[in-house]
Specification:
The complex is a heterodimer. Chain A contains 7 helices and 8 strands, in the order βαβαβαβαββαβαβα. By secondary structure, chain A is α/β, with parallel strands linked by helices. Chain A has one domain (14-219): P-loop containing nucleotide triphosphate hydrolases (Rossmann fold), CATH 3.40.50. By secondary structure, chain B is α+β, with helices and mostly antiparallel strands. Classes of the chains: A alpha/beta, B alpha+beta. The A-B interface holds A 1-16, 93-95, 97, 124-125, 127-129, 150, 153-155, 157, 186-189 and B 1-2, 5-6, 9-10, 12-13, 17-18, 21, 23-24, 27, 31, 36-39, 84-88, 95-97, 103-116.
């Protein structure tokens, strides 16, 4: 037997990274702003998507990909708003991967402005996987506590935008939005931060303006 | 726990890189894991030991090299490591930083054995 040492130095997520880069290229080329929504379970991702659907349609064309371990519930909620939605049931996996999105790509409407991908509720594993998104938005809801950014540094570091959700509960809970913002910005100084309530709609217009601006910057398409 | 998916990716790279040497077996695998990679070294080893059964790496041990989170300050060029996830420069307090390491999930080295007469 001959012993050999091989120096490799290759990222073990390189096959996901390649699939994601190809997806991003094709989506941007079509003029689609793709948003990967990440949060812990119950932070209000689906409710936010329902509010966005009410405000953006029919001016813009939306599609949603829902990731959950089980059930079709979230996709049904989105379809009830008249938006095409696909449910990926991961069957136990704690995150989505680029190839899962790639398999759905041929089914997406050819005329599309925004694709929202609602990741599996989890602040750990989804952070490791590029899905071909142009924007990664994290939701942190008031009931979760303002101490979360440093507990989940990778998620906060890799996002471009943070939404402090369930803002209608501020004042009822010992959640200090300034502390959450400060912690998040210590990890990621460039983070855009919004505070909104998907329930009452307060603050949502600022977030929509941000999405429209980002779509213009990233895809070069105007409203 | 997404370490099993990560190990599946590791095996993809392992097959691609070790395959051309036509190994009789893979005896050791070294993986660089950043402190901000989101992966837990201990769980990676467990996942590797589950995944390797029935493969050429069945007898291989996974060695994890932990990589600190380090930055270079774009304002004053200071290089530094962080422990506590407060990401600003210790000398000029600047926050315009270039990350040098810390998110690594990199297959560093493979040790394998080949039959004497093969390539």
């Amino acid at each position: 037997m001959k012993h050999k040492e091989i120096e490799v130095l290759e990222d073990i997520l390189s096959s996901n990274a390649r699939a994601a880069a190809e997806l991003r290229r094709r989506l941007v080329e079509r003029g689609v702003l793709t948003v990967n929504l990440m949060s812990s379970p119950g932070a209000g991702k689906t409710t936010l998507l329902e509010r966005l659907a009410e405000r953006l349609v029919p001016r813009f064309r939306l599609a949603v990909i829902e990731g959950d371990i089980e059930t079709e519930r979230d996709a049904e909620r989105i379809r009830a708003k008249g938006i095409p939605a696909w449910q990926i049931q991961t069957g136990g996996a704690c995150h989505l991967e680029a190839k899962m999105i790639g398999r759905l790509f041929p089914e997406l409407p050819s005329e599309l402005d925004f694709l929202f991908i609602e990741n599996v509720g989890n602040l750990v594993c989804p952070a490791g996987y590029d899905l071909g998104e142009s924007l990664r938005c994290l939701l942190l809801s008031a009931p979760e506590g303002d101490d979360k950014p440093k507990k989940y540094p990778k998620a906060f570091r890799t996002a471009q935008c943070l939404i402090l959700s369930k803002a209608d509960l501020l004042g009822l809970l010992p959640f200090d939005p300034e502390r959450a913002k400060k912690e998040a910005r210590e990890i990621n100084p460039g983070l855009e931060i919004f505070s909104l309530s998907a329930l009452t709609g307060a603050g949502i217009e600022d977030f929509i303006a941000y999405l429209l601006r980002q779509r213009q910057i990233i895809t070069g398409r105007h409203a | 726990m997404h370490e099993l998916s990560l190990v599946a990716g590791l095996f993809e790279v392992l097959e691609e890189k070790a395959g051309p040497y036509k190994p009789a077996k893979i005896v050791a695998v070294k993986l660089r894991v950043g402190r901000l990679s989101g992966a837990v070294p201990e769980l990676l080893v467990t996942a590797f030991d589950m995944y390797k059964k029935g493969t050429l790496a069945e007898e291989a041990a996974l060695e994890v090299i932990e990589v600190p989170v380090s930055f270079r300050c774009r304002t004053c060029a200071q290089e530094f490591e962080v422990e506590d996830f407060v990401f600003h420069c210790p000398s000029c307090q600047g926050s315009d930083l270039e990350m040098l390491s810390g998110t690594d999930l990199v297959l560093d080295k493979i040790e394998l054995e080949t039959e004497e007469n093969s390539a």
